Amino acid sequence: METTTERRRLFATEKVGGRAVYRVQAATVAAGILLVLYYRATRVPAAGEGRAAWLGMAAAELWFAAYWVITQSVRWCPVRRRTFKNRLAERYEENLPGVDIYVCTADPYAEPPSLVISTILSVMAYNYPSEKISVYLSDDGGSILTFYGLWEASMFAKKWLPFCRRYNIEPRSPAAYFSESEGHHNLCSPKEWSLIKNLYEEMRERIDSAVMSGKIPEEIKLKHKGFEEWNSEMTSKNHQPIVQVLIDGKSQNAVDDDGNVLPTLIRVSSVISDSPVILNVDCDMYSNNSDSIRDALCFFLDEEMGQKIGFVQYPQIFNNMTQNDIYGNSFNVSYHVEMCGLDSVGGCLYIGTGCFHRREILCGRIFSKDYKENWNRGIKERGKQNINEIEEKAKSLVTCTYEHRTQWGNDIGVKYGFPAEDIITGLAIHCRGWESAFINPKRAAFLGLAPSTLAQNILQHKRWSEGNLTIFLSKYCSFLFGHGKIKLQLQMGYCICGLWAANSLPTLYYVVIPSLGLVKGTPLFPQITSPWATPFIYVFCVKTLYGLYEALLSGDTLKGWWNGQRMWMVKSITSYLYGFIDTIRKCLGMSKMSFEVTAKVSSHDEAKRYEQEILEFGSSSPEYVIIATVALLNFVCLVGGLSQIMAGVWNMPWNVFLPQAILCGMIVIINMPIYEAMFLRKDNGRIPTAVTLASIGFVMLAFLILIDGKSQNAVDDDGNVLPSLVYMAREKRPQYHHNFKSGAMNALVCFLTLFSFTLKQG
Ligand SMILES: *[C@@H]1O[C@H](CO)[C@@H](O)[C@H](O)[C@H]1NC(C)=O
Ligand SMILES: *[C@@H]1O[C@H](CO)[C@@H](O)[C@H](O)[C@H]1NC(C)=O
Fold this sequence. Notes:
It is found in: Golgi apparatus membrane. By secondary structure, this protein is α/β, with parallel strands linked by helices. Helices cover 50% and strands 9% of the residues.
């Protein structure tokens, strides 16, 4: 039974169950970790008997322990949110606030305009009063092709929006709708359905062929004055500011074919629509749920708790994931556990897409109890300015010097200049006293495209981990910046991703050194019969099993979890390692390492292998050499170690080496697909022979160092209003761009040197 106050609320917050089991588990694991560390500290071997290797193990375990503590901050008492859209409609239907939607794109070749406009059309078609929606496309590449796509979309919207409303179709991205609804379009007449489908497909063909040829037909250029902005000297890195209003929702002409007016892209929107709520979404994430605006407003408009909520974040969910998530990019555990935990201690992180903000918080407003939001803002008439004057005014706000003159992007509002500026923006909002809410509805609100090759995955995580570590080491470190302003658990929560990159060295150490110790005869764990083995085994097993339990509960499959474990190792020794080294180099003022970017558009073969869940390598890059070397090294160590144990080479009981043999064996099992890619597969996605040879070389080198104990020099390597639609591109000038490039084999050389040193000492 609902109580009276609950009946009034627009959203409910529920505690996630199972906390008693969790807390018992956490307490015993904590005790186990302390015993492990005590053992490490009190049993240090004498110099020359593996002391350096032992101390390295101790350091790695100390790090894992600290990181474990940090990850517990979000598991203590997670919450879930639920909304009541019917109550919102009952109370606020006539007074719903305006919403500005920002869609961001960068490059017409990596993000084809036909994909971008599907996203645009899906958000224009929200189940929300059209005259209150304004859609802005921010094009960082300033491309005429994207502008052309948007112009076509503004024409197609006149048919598409009435069609969506009339039959209440879902999802409202035409690309997704027509690919899913084949055959079951019984809502409307087949004739009407085919008509709209053909219109859509013709439009897509026109856009795709323009992108292919790189040219817009001259007769089309005459149809909108916006095309005049482009001339032959312009490049994606050097152009004037461009703002073009394609549909002006406040004028009478913006009426769709049913006779309705179309829905009207922070600074630019302030002179154009100035809505109190802003949604920003990536260009490849279409809306899969036309009610998402209403769900988000249930938080902002709640009479009791809404006042404190600064932003509402939806998870980033991918629609082209294979069943067992071969690249581990579902983030199921992050969204089902970590974000819910953060939500209970002050607010989830802002992840840069799928997020509704109050406009005021992006302009730096500090939370105060007395502040009353003006939900009617922007809805009134804009005055007597005509659209050209507004475009000129908006242009002055997107010049590259604008930000240099104001504090706008600096101390307040959106934080620029960091690779993961969204995280800082969110932190700054929390530090100004606002809370945030995380909502993960059963039917996904936004669906995007997951990277479908290993190279894209490695690159994406390198960028993320590097950006997050840079923040951790800057004045925006949550412990410094958030000190005294946000809860300790939230400060810790921000570090979970902040310290991803720092996991690289301990992980690399753990997957290499114990295995080498197995061959060299250096015991690094207590023997399996000793009581001291118990905490090691307990911590390892319980932590793994609890992780498995969380993953299964969050919707992963067993195999998906297993793939996730492999990807964690692979990312740690490549993306996170590169991210870590680059961040350190940046801190020391050295230039960045270059990182190979492979094509984003995948071939037919690649797509097929992705469906079959086969790892995609294909090119020769240094990251693959690291992966192959670690895999091969463990295999050789396992074989070598076991044969030496059986031959009784060392005067030590065999079970002294059992834990290392088990660890090494597990690394070998998890790397099975890597061996396959090196030696068995024949397709184009296999590990190239050059990489296999290089890894064999590195393994031999490691053994030479190991056996000689001498160092070698490191080798090289209807009547309704239509939503307004605006195109904008920030001004770009070459002097504002800095390009750093240098050798990429450095990472390999760095860690080889590090290991040869450890081994020599050991
Ligand atoms: C997403 O998956 C589909 C198949 O499920 C594939 O055809 C498509 O190429 C994938 N998208 C990307 C960007 O890889
Ligand atoms: C997307 O929306 C459709 C309904 O249009 C639904 O069937 C599907 O489950 C949703 N996808 C996800 C991942 O929630």
